[in-house]
Amino acid sequence: MAAARRHSAAQKAEIMHVVLVEPEIPPNTGNVARLCAATRTTLHLIEPFGFKLDDAALKRAGMDYWRQVDWRRWANWSAFAAQLPKRGRLWVIESGGPQIYSEVSFAADDYLVFGRETAGLPEPLLTQHRDRWLRIPMFNPEARSLNLSNCVALVLFEALRQQNFSGGS
Fold it and tell me: Which of 49, 53, 101, 143 gives the lowest tally of CB atoms within 10 Å of its CB?
C-alpha cells in the first residue's frame, strides 16, 4: 500500500476522522479505507490488527483507493490518544450507548471511533466517554451486530450531512 496521502491546509479544515480500534477483518478495513478516500476522511488504524497490512483481501476491498487515503497507523490506543488535538471530539460508537448517532451534532474534525468486529470497544473507553457514546438502533434483538464498514458509513454520512456535505460534489 502507498504511504498516506496528505491533504492541503484548506482541505484539512473540513476533515472528519474515522478510528478503527484493533480491526480484525481485512475486507471491512479495506471498505472503510475506500469510504474514507471518497469522503476525504482521515483514517486512523490502531494496533494490534487481526491481519497484515499487505493482506490481499485488505487491498482488494480497498481497491486502488489506498493511495488516495490519508491514513495513520498507531501502535496502541495510548499512542493515538496522546496526539489528539484540542479541536475535535471523540465519539465512540458501540451498542448500548445512551444516545442514537443521529441525535447528536457532529462537527468537522470530530473523531468517530469504532471497535473490533468480535468484541467492540473496551468498557473503560466507553465509560470514559459516556457523554459521547453513541449507538445505532437495531430492531431485531436476536441480531448480534451490523457489519463494521456499514456502521462507519451510516455514522460518517450523518456527520457529513449535518455539515451540508461541505467539500462534496
Answer: 143
- The Cβ of residue 82 has, within 10 Å, a number of other Cβ atoms equal to 9
Going by their DSSP bridges, the two strands 133-135 and 111-114 should be labelled as unpaired
Question: Strand 111-114 and strand 71-74: pairing?
Answer: unpaired
**HSE-CB of 49 using CA atoms within 13 angstroms:** 20
- Predicted TM-score (pTM) of the model is 0.88
Number of domains in the chain: 1
C-alpha cell at 125: 473507553
Radius of gyration of the chain (CA): 15
* Phi and psi angles of residue 109, each rounded to the nearest 5 degrees, phi first: 75, 10
Domain extent at residue 103: 9-162
Q: What is the pLDDT of residues 145-158, one digit of tens each?
A: 899 999 999 999 99
Q: Which residue has the cell 491481519?
A: 51
Query: Does residue 3 belong to any structural domain of this protein?
Result: no
Q: What are phi and psi of 88, to 5 degrees?
A: 90, 150
Residue 4 in domain: no
